[in-house]
Amino acid sequence: MNLTASRPRVFLSSVIEHFDAYRSAARSAVETVGGEATLVNEDFPSKRDSSRNTCLDAVASSDVFVLIIGARGGWRAPSGKLVVEEELEEARSRRLPTLVFIEDVEHDPDADALIKRVSDYVDGYFRVRFRGPEGLTRELSRALQPIIEAAKMPVASSDELPKYFQQFRKIGDQTTLRFVLVPERREEVLDPVRLGSEGFADRVLEIGHSKAIRLFHYQFAKEPPAIDKDTLVIDQPGGSDWRHGIQATRLRLFESGGIVIDSNVTGRRARIDSGTAMEMFRIGIEDIEAALKTDFHFTHALYDEIDRHKRHQRFHWNAALTGIGYRSFERNPQPRQSYAMNISEQDEPAFALPEARLIDRIALGDPLGEIQRATHNWTRK
Known about the structure:
alpha/beta; Rossmann fold; 35% helix; elongated
């Protein structure tokens, strides 16, 4: 497996109004030394959450906090504190490495009070004076370089995923889809205590049963959630009355945040004589699309639960079909008297993508393009 170093996320806290040149200069400095700059106003222009929650969540998801104090203290939050003060307190509560940069100009009373606070002998921070945007770029680059190097963490490449495509689950004589998603940053996403708790398993089941997702279905029994080493396993066998269709699903959730979902894509419809023959020789493209949509939406909702501060922004994903046999792909197949058989029986897994794709959190929540790419590759083979 090839590992490279992640770009530590650096939250840049400052006033917004009339400070564009300074924020741009700070972003340039962060990127020059190998960090990933986070500027909420510029990077998240439209969010459903409140501005305050968005800012504090962005601080919580970061690795380093940088406070830039210019001439003005800026806006106050409903708490009565300066917005940048609330962000600073969040960084302190998260024990983030914190740097403070103070522009060498005359300051208003709010900015002056903030400077005195961050300059406290006991509770203060490392501080640097600068002049103008160019001076900020120079001083920030110099101070941030060793911190960025220390904060770098390994990230997984696409070579991480093959180990998740072993020992495929067989669901009767059906074609089965395996969906795999792994966060790019290699770190513990779920601590063992939380992963093994009954309350957490209940919450995962609640998300999976929600009407907007339907990964699991109430009419099908589940095995009791189980812990297998570092993995939570939830298994819905799918029933045994094939006349009414089966919907078998097995979820595996790893401490590392990796997710593996196995589900059948044939056999989900109620079986009648002609329907039985149809699903022996055809795989409905829309059934694959529906299963992938469910998997993406579930993983997106689950990450909103387990990574509420959105520390993990990028993910590797791939999927594979097994048990294709003599089936061929067809959109909206209909029962008929006879079917052409795919003579090139396929026993090996058919992967959606030649190698895993790296997607961001936006694509995870809106996966239409990824689903279209996958189904196009399958039906072209």
